[in-house]
Amino acid sequence: MPVKDYRTDLLVRLSNPDYAALYLKTALDETLKDGNREAFVLALRNVVEARQVTQESSADAPGKPLQRVLAEGENPTLETFVAVLSAVGLTIDFKPA
Asked: What pTM did the predictor assign?
């Protein structure tokens, strides 16, 4: 049976905006439960990378500035989060729990 490369498959799935939104929502929900902010930042990095892979030649694709903002060791702010979401074509949606 052929084996898929997990990372490549993840990036392909994350290129779908609906999947990326669900992925980030799930990552945020888990972060709110366990406090692991690094896991959420990794999820953001994955979404940005997926967007870059699918839009490499596009002028409006997020680029190096977003990679720097999400660099390991950095502490992203709410403004960073909103900028990343905007760059990958997502928004925040609040609903009653």
From this structure: 0.77
